[in-house]
């Protein structure tokens, strides 16, 4: 897990190493200063000469300035290293997600991925900065201070034998009870973000049903739940302060009482300067233990974030480019050979079963069927968004698993019912289909998709800004723009997954007529609920329960398919037969 995330350090290894060196230098100097100060105090009691006093004072000033330089330089290099490290982690997660197949994406909710890219990475960034600064300085200062304390104070240093185990035990107990609470918090963050995302996306539905109070209550409950867990965890972690204070004051009292008794009774060679340095070293030791306890708490919180980030980075994409991949799609012919598919190996039921169909290049194919009949699953296997569990899918005579993924997907354009438009101009959105498309190409594609007229009616035409999610255009306008975007790819296969559901029947007919006239060589697959949208197709598939129940033209299916005939009669007769 740690090895996975530390690979993201890359070009920021050098600033990290430099930070560690600076912190090492600062720790050495901080440990030496009390030693020199103790010698100065002893010399003052022995009528030290002024030149010696000035020289010692100058040494202390120089050491302090060097320590200050090391600390400041370490701050600058650690900021660069931690920010760069976080940038690389964020970049690697985003790039990893882009390689995921739909089956991989199904394992992570969008809200969870957002939390991992924001909150979790921020936690890791802060922890990394503490690790290369405090986690380097504190142990070194601790070791140096203990060594110097034993050199200077002798048996007075025995106080640390009591203090250090007490602190360590306290930290372990705190971590034991705080860790589960932090673990729950990050899972609840995912649910909170999911609630926010759903509410923002469905704001019109919320207002339409007057459910604002319900949504507020749901959000308040999730927020209160997180607050309760964080409060519990922070309450436990807060015990670290009192434990540290008790040990600090115990240490000071022990050194003052025992040290003073030793000096007064003349029981050893210890003097005032050495006792004062013992107080300083004792304070340093306890402060470094406090720093280590802070790091321990931070790492306790960050461990869950590291785990969640590593889950994404270690996730292996289910779909890979094959070796010696085919680099050209010959035509738009499609063949399903004994294809069965289920979304998970653990799933008990197949979403598609025993599908056998041959579609010639350039054909127009209609697909109808009820909800859950497998229509969308069927077309998602063509561009290899999922891989068939059994059997094979061939495009242009080649198994889709043998194609280079980019080549295959460039040859297949999909327009979904809920396609997305991105923030930017209409022109920029259309050029997602072809970055090099000319204005003439844009107009041609929009004319074909019946979008040119309404785009031209906008004051700024193709330079009209699309708001986030396409909220400033209607559902039908959005679908037509998405169809135009797909046409700009000049695909060999065009898949419309119920993507004309928001346009009127007249516009739908114009779009289909344009397809027949302008892209006759493109294989067109149209999933629709309306029989009128597929009635003139060369081939119509009727799907039921993940199987192809019937195949044929409109006239043939009217004679042979009871399902098709019932749907047709319901739609053409307005459901009168059912009402009767």
List the helices and strands and how they pair.
Elements: H1 2-6, H2 13-44, H3 50-99, H4 102-105, H5 110-132, H6 134-153, H7 159-201, H8 203-208, H9 212-237, H10 240-265, H11 272-314, E1 334-341, E2 352-359, E3 364-369, H12 375-380, E4 390-395, E5 398-399, H13 405-411, E6 412-416, E7 424-425, H14 426-430, H15 439-448, H16 452-457, E8 465-466, H17 475-487, E9 493-497, H18 505-518, E10 523-527, E11 539-544, E12 547-552, H19 554-560, H20 562-572, H21 576-579
Parallel strand pairs: 3-10, 3-11, 6-9, 9-10
Antiparallel strand pairs: 1-2, 1-4, 4-5, 7-8, 11-12
Please characterize this protein's 3D structure.
The chain is of the alpha/beta class and 580 residues long. It is built from 21 helices and twelve strands. The protein has helices at 2-6, 13-44, 50-99, 102-105, 110-132, 134-153, 159-201, 203-208, 212-237, 240-265, 272-314, 375-380, 405-411, 426-430, 439-448, 452-457, 475-487, 505-518, 554-560, 562-572, 576-579; strands spanning 334-341, 352-359, 364-369, 390-395, 398-399, 412-416, 424-425, 465-466, 493-497, 523-527, 539-544, 547-552. Strand 4 (390-395) and strand 5 (398-399) form a beta hairpin. Mean pLDDT is 82; it is low at 575-580.
């Amino acid at each position: 897990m740690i090895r996975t995330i530390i690979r993201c350090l890359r070009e920021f290894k050098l600033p990290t190493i430099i930070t560690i060196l600076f912190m090492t230098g600062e720790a050495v100097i901080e440990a030496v200063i009390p030693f020199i100060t103790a010698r100065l105090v002893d010399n003052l009691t022995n009528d030290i000469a002024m030149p010696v006093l000035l020289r010692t004072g100058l040494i202390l000033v120089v050491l302090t300035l060097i320590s200050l330089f090391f600390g400041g330089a370490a701050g600058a290099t650690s900021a660069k290293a931690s920010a760069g490290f976080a940038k690389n982690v964020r970049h690697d997660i985003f790039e990893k997600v882009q390689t995921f197949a739909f089956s991989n994406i199904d394992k992570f909710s969008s809200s969870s991925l957002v939390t991992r890219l924001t909150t979790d990475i921020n936690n890791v960034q802060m922890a990394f900065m503490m690790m290369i600064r405090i986690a380097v300085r504190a142990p070194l200062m601790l070791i140096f201070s203990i060594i110097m304390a034993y050199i200077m104070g002798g048996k007075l240093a025995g106080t640390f034998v009591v203090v250090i185990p007490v602190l360590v035990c306290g930290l372990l107990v705190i971590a034991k009870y705080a860790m589960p609470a932090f673990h729950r918090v990050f899972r609840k963050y995912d649910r909170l973000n999911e609630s926010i995302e759903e509410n923002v996306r469905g704001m019109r539905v919320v207002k339409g049903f007057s459910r604002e109070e319900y949504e507020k209550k749901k959000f308040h409950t999730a927020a209160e739940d997180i607050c309760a867990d964080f409060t519990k965890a922070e309450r436990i972690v807060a015990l670290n302060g009192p434990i540290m204070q008790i040990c600090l004051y115990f240490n000071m009292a022990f050194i003052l009482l025992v040290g003073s008794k030793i000096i007064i009774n003349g029981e050893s060679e210890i003097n005032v300067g050495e006792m004062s340095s013992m107080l300083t070293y004792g304070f340093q030791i306890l402060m470094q233990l406090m720093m280590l306890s802070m790091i321990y708490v931070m790492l306790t919180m960050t461990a869950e974030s590291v785990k969640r980030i590593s889950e994404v980075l270690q996730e292996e994409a289910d779909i890979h480019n094959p070796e010696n991949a085919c680099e050209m799609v010959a035509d738009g012919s499609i063949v399903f050979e004994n294809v069965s598919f289920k979304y998970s190996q653990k799933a008990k039921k197949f979403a598609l079963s025993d599908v056998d169909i041959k579609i010639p290049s350039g054909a127009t194919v209609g697909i109808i069927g009820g909800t859950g009949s497998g229509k969308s699953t069927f077309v998602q296997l063509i561009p290899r968004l999922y891989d068939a569990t059994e059997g094979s899918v061939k495009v242009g005579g080649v198994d889709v698993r043998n194609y280079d993924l980019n080549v295959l997907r460039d040859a297949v354009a999909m327009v979904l019912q809920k396609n997305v438009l991105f923030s930017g101009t209409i022109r920029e959105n259309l050029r997602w289909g072809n970055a090099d498309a000319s204005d003439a190409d844009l107009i041609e594609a929009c004319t074909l998709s019946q979008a040119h007229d309404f785009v031209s009616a906008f004051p700024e035409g193709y330079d009209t800004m699309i708001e986030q999610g396409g909220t400033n255009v209607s559902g039908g306008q959005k679908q037509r723009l998405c169809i135009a975007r797909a046409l700009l790819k000049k695909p060999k296969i065009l898949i419309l997954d119920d993507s004309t559901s928001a346009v009127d029947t007249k516009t739908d007919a114009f779009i289909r007529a344009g397809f027949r006239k302008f892209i006759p060589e493109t294989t067109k697959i149209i999933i629709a609920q309306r029989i009128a949208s597929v009635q003139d197709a060369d081939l119509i598939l009727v799907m039921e329960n993940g199987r192809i129940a019937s195949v044929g033209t409109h006239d043939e299916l009217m004679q042979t398919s009871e399902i098709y005939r019932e749907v047709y009669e319901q739609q053409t007769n307005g459901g009168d037969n059912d009402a009767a």
